[in-house]
Specification:
The protein is α+β, with helices and mostly antiparallel strands and 98 residues long. The chain has a single domain (3-96), classed as SH3 type barrels (Roll). Helix content is 16%, strand content 28%. It contains 2 helices and 6 strands; from the N terminus they run αββββββα. It has helices spanning 3-12, 91-96; strands spanning 22-26, 31-34, 37-39, 43-47, 58-62, 66-70. The chain has a 3-stranded antiparallel sheet. It has a 3-stranded antiparallel sheet with strand order 3-4-5, covered by helices on one side. It is globular.
């Protein structure tokens, strides 16, 4: 799966119990704080709570331009399990194996 498809899936299947806000790190070297978003088949529409230095409140990005996502809310890590995230086994659990 290419990077654009991964980010599209992440935003399209955003966990319902996680607020739709955070910071997107882009291929342009920008960090875009957002307070809402809408998904499309090719593009992501990001809502900014506060305008940027040029006055923009909405940003349209290709999924391929997303390099990272910072989640700013406290969350249960299990909310991201559908995306394949899992905690590594604890050292004590490893020692219990026969």
């Amino acid at each position: 799966m290419d990077g654009a498809a991964v980010w599209q899936r992440m935003f399209c299947e955003w966990p319902a119990d996680l607020p739709r806000r955070g910071i997107i790190v882009t291929a342009f070297g920008e960090q875009i704080p957002f307070d809402g978003f809408q998904t499309g088949p090719d593009l992501l529409l990001v809502d900014r709570k506060n305008p940027d230095t040029l006055g923009a409140r909405k940003i349209v990005l290709a999924y391929s331009q997303v390099l990272g996502l910072k989640i700013v809310d406290v969350m249960d890590p299990r909310a991201l399990a559908p995306f394949g995230f899992a905690a590594p086994p604890s050292p004590t659990a490893e020692r219990r194996k026969p």
